[in-house]
């Protein structure tokens, strides 16, 4: 369903397990950024009532996920660390068209968002299957399902409103671009690292 070209090496989970506090902090901030991203899309495209309605719900869900991760952090006696820079997302951002019309910008932002959700879903699936911690295994399985829904929401709106844009072609270009970017990741205890 996600159409990613390159799967995460399962050895990434071994890296994650060596520093659970770090992955949880990074994950918490990823959820916060996902909520902010949804609000940004709403702000830039408020003339689409169905998009606003659905992305408000998505932003709220991302904030609930942020709280859920924070609750696990507190329960385990950890502290939410400072916000982390997400190099993967920053590199992926370079794909988006600079200039062009508002519709092209909206479609690119939606596809960019769909890709981040797809990669997060793929990583959560891997964590749910491979991590030795039963609580986190179940937690990441539940979140994987949610991320798949977010991916579908973003790509669905790109297709719905990208009338004069070959959205599927643009998506394939992003899939190819992401495959080149992700080759450099999977070596750190971060969701996209």
UniProtKB/TrEMBL annotation:
InterPro entries reported in the protein's UniProt record: Ferritin-like, Ferritin-like_SF, tRNA-Hydrxlase_MiaE
UniProt-listed Pfam families: MiaE
GO biological process, one term: tRNA modification
An MF annotation (GO) of this entry: tRNA 2-(methylsulfanyl)-N(6)-isopentenyladenosine(37) hydroxylase activity
Protein's UniProt name: tRNA-(Ms[2]io[6]A)-hydroxylase
């Amino acid at each position: 369903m996600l159409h990613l070209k390159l799967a995460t090496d399962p050895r990434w989970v071994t890296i994650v397990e060596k520093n659970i506090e770090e992955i949880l902090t990074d994950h918490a901030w990823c959820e916060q950024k996902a909520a902010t991203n949804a609000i940004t899309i709403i702000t830039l495209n408020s003339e689409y009532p169905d998009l606003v309605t659905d992305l408000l719900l998505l932003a709220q869900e991302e904030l609930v996920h942020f709280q859920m991760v924070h609750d696990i952090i507190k329960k385990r006696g950890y502290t939410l660390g400072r916000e982390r820079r997400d190099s993967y997302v920053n590199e992926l951002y370079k794909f988006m068209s600079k200039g062009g019309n508002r519709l092209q910008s909206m479609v690119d932002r939606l596809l960019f968002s769909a890709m981040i959700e797809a990669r997060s879903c793929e990583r959560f699936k891997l964590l749910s299957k491979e991590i030795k911690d039963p609580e986190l295994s179940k937690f990441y399985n539940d979140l994987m399902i949610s991320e798949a829904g977010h991916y579908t929401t973003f790509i669905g709106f790109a297709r719905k409103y990208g009338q004069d844009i070959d959205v599927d072609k643009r998506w394939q270009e992003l899939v190819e671009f992401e495959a080149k970017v992700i080759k450099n990741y999977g070596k750190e205890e971060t969701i996209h690292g």
